[in-house]
Amino acid sequence: MTMQRKPGDTDALQEAGAWARWFWDEFLVSWLGMAGDAEGGGVFETLDADGRADPRAEKTALTQARTLFSLSHLALLAGGDHALTAAAKRQLAMLRRFRKPTGLYRRAVAGDGAATGRPADELARSYDQSFVLLGLATWNRLCPSAAVEEECETCWRAIEAGLTDPATGLLLEHDGLADPAAPDAPPRAQNPHMHLYEACLQAHEMTGNPVWTARAARLRDLALRHFLDEDSGSIVEFLAPDLSPLPGMAGLRREPGHQCEWAWLLSREADFGGDAGLRAVAARLADFALAHGFAQDGVLAGAAFDAVSAHGGVVEDSFLLWPQTEAIKMFATLHMTGRTGASQPAAGDRAAALLALMFRRWFDGRPVWASRLDAGGRAIWPQGLTRLFYHLVLALTEGARAGLWPGIARG
To answer: What is the DSSP string of 68-90?
Structure first.
């Protein structure tokens, strides 16, 4: 199940290529066998450190929608691979169990797809709807139907009607929020806006319909207006309910993974013919991440920290898996555009080195992956979260698109 690093293999591109081939040829099938829930439907949320799932655990719209996207994306790249398409179809059936009469998708259901009976699970979160749209749009390119196209539009209209603050246009945390500006309301988060922007860009690529580029541009403009810190060239994670900065470190917190993710998305919109000035914003975000977001020494040298401050200091010297994938995507984009940061090694080499480091430290010797490591490389969150499969798939396919390592084979 695991791949051991080859002794003496120090070339980053060679090692990254070997890991990519292992992921496509061996790991993917094994992981799908462990994560798929043949009885309850969809996929399990978590695999423990021994690769085992708890069949009684709840299922979330977030994980099921992300997996629908991932399988559909891979099936498209593999030329309509039958097994991947069939697995994606099962995900679509599972995701529909989350749908509410409003057209939004509830947060969670029981492991067998039934209602949990908990009011919090009936809420529809704006963050989750982003991935519903991402998954539905990609599935509909793989297996087109008027019904799924209408599902996408219904979900979009429901987001506008039930998850949008009429006073600001910003997304609401969930559809049970009465007053988003109240002092006890949840903080305003950049993350749902970023991922809905991503979903709109994906829908544009899948359909060619200009309505999605217009929606993406409106979301991006709104998000950057509120969450871009012009002084540091970084994205603010949270604002107070009244849109003022949060006090103390909460307001200064920056996540390198999100700086990289925004840089990748802005470059993607520009590639689709959007405002060419977006590349300058993407470059500022990339420069902030390059200057402050990566460990410079230790066993995880080159890995992205969980959090730093707007001033560049390390806030959390732990290492979640997903920021590594977002950094790989950013480096792959920089490689394709020919841009590197000042005094930085070639972006393609950094992407390959980080991919190899990720597999060696987060994967090697484990049945799946660890979700978080400490600064010494020890697992402090040894369970493998299924929702992270989405991050892994995009990192590997973006690197393959950049020609840095092999992609999934076409059937």
So the answer is: HHHHHHHHHHTTS-HHHHHHHHH
For residues 176 and 123, the answer to whether their CB atoms sit within 8 Å is: yes
**Taking Cα atoms as reference points, which of 112, 125, 117 lies closest to residue 155?**
125
- pLDDT, averaged per 10 consecutive residues of the chain (411 residues), comes to 38 95 97 97 97 95 98 98 97 98 98 95 98 98 98 98 97 97 97 98 97 98 98 98 97 98 97 94 97 98 98 97 98 83 71 98 97 98 98 98 96 77
Tell me the C-alpha distance between 334 and 285, whole Å.
Answer: 12
DSSP H helices in 253-380: 256-271, 278-292, 321-337, 347-358
The DSSP bridge partners found for residue 260 are none
Contact 61, 128 (CB under 8 A): yes
Question: Residue 383, SS3?
Answer: coil
For 183-242, what is each residue's pLDDT tens digit?
999 999 999 999 999 999 999 999 999 999 999 999 999 999 999 999 999 999 999 999
- The string of DSSP letters for 249-268 reads HHHHEE-HHHHHHHHHHHHH
CATH 1.50.10.10 holds for 34-401:
yes
Q: Are strands 372-373 and 319-320 parallel, antiparallel or unpaired?
A: antiparallel
Query: Measured on CA atoms in the order 223, 226, 229, 230, is the torsion positive or negative?
Result: positive
What's the pLDDT score for residue 220? 98
d(CA 170, CA 165): 5
CA dihedral 388, 42, 212, 210 (to 10 degrees): 120
Q: Is 145 exposed, middle or buried (0-12, 13-18, 19+ CB in 10 A)?
A: exposed
* 102 Cβ neighbours under 8 A, 6+ residues apart: 124, 158, 161, 162, 175
